[in-house]
Amino acid sequence: MSRKHGHWGFTEEAKAWASRARRRDEKDELETALDELTDDESE
After folding, report:
1. What is the C-alpha separation between 40 and 42, in angstroms, rounded?
2. What is the residue range of 30's domain?
3. What is the pLDDT of residues 9-35, one digit of tens each?
4. Within a domain: residue 6?
5. Considering the domain boundaries, does residue 4 fall inside one?
6. The whole model's pTM is what?
7. Buried (b) or exposed (e) across 18-36, using 16+ Cβ within 10 A?
8. How many domains does the chain have?
9. 4, 21, 23: which is closest to 13 by C-alpha?
């Protein structure tokens, strides 16, 4: 458990990138699911 200089800054940055990517992926999945639902209803 070495607390090198900049370690926590990197962690925060990584978390920010991860959450941003996760939100984007979830948005894509939600839109896909929504498209499938609306497709089923329009038939």
Report:
1. 6
2. 11-38
3. 677 778 888 888 888 888 999 999 999
4. no
5. no
6. 0.43
7. eeeeeeeeeeeeeeeeeee
8. 1
9. 21
